[in-house]
Every structure is written in structure tokens, then in C-alpha cells.
Amino acid sequence: PASLLRLFLLPGTLCREQDGSGTPPAAAAPAPCSSSVLSYGHLEGDVRWRRLFSATRFFLRIDGSGGVEGTRWRERPGSIVEIRSVRVGVVAIRAVHTGFYLAMNKRGRLYGSKEFSPNCKFMERIEENGYNTYAALRWRHRGRPMFLSLNSKGRPRRGGKTRRQQLSTHFLPMLVS
């Protein structure tokens, strides 16, 4: 029996099935893709332990009092975070050592929250350069997303001053060994 190869395209486009020979099934015409084809339910609830390393060369850290900062020392308590998928493309970031969730208020200020709230949800996006950006799901500034960002001194930047293209908003989720 030949294995089936499926090509899945965006909604509204067509899906084709091919067998191992590279020829489409004889009687089958291209059929519209069903919505179940694009289901990403398996990603919901996914939990990853990482260190978020900024393009400005700092590790994101949430300290014991809920302060957010960057540290050059990778082994510093609070630098290991749990990135939990809330739904597709939306994550919650929690410091494993301190238990604080990363949150952003409506003014774009980053802080640590002991309780999970809507302020703790961030849209995670993998950029073209391979870095990830994290934009507050709940808040926008003048219609623009507000991003998690560490400046060149390791201090958090206010969300309203950030843009997706700025290197200070780019993070590499590094595996915890």
C-alpha cells in the first residue's frame, strides 16, 4: 500500500491527495479543504521551559517582587520561564522560580502578577529572522500592538514605544538544560 501525501493550504483553497507515485487519484477532483484540516488543537495547553534571550543580549527575568528586568547572568533565579499555550498563537509566560506571570498593563508597563489574568496573555509570533516577538493580547497603543521589550541596558521598555521591527522586541526561546 502506498502512503498518502496530503497538501494542506489556507482556507478557501484546494487540497489534493496524492499517492506515493505522484499522480492524483483517478476519480478525485480537487475538493475544498474542511476547517478540521487546519485544526491546531494539539498545540493548546503545550508547556515549554525556556530562557528568553533578547537580541539586546539579556535574559528576561521576573524577580521575587514581580519586577521585570534583563540579566546577563543566565543562571540567575527567575530567568527560567514556563511558556504555556493558552490557545493557538497566544501564550502565558510564568517565571518558574518566583511563580509570577509576565503581564502588561494598559500603559504598556511590564510587571509580574501572582494571579493569571487577561493582562498575562501575549501573542507569540516567529519573525523572519528566527526570533520570537510577544505582543500584549489585551492592549494596543494608538491601534498598534505593544510588545515585550528589553532596552540596551536590560530595562523593560514601555509597550507604546515598541514596534515589531525593533531588535529590542526580539527574543530567542533557549532550551533549559
From TrEMBL:
| Protein keywords | Developmental protein, Differentiation, Growth factor, Mitogen
Highest taxon listed in the record's lineage: Eukaryota
InterPro entries xrefs = Fibroblast_GF_fam, IL1/FGF
Q: Which Pfam families match?
A: FGF
- SMART domains associated with the record: FGF
Instruction: Name the PROSITE patterns on file.
Output: HBGF_FGF (PS00247)
* Gene Ontology BP terms: cell differentiation; positive regulation of cell division
User: Transmembrane ranges?
Assistant: none
Q: Which GO terms describe its molecular function?
A: growth factor activity
Regarding protein family, the annotation reads:
Belongs to the heparin-binding growth factors family.
Give the protein name, as stated in the record. Answer: Fibroblast growth factor
Write the gene name: LOC101871381
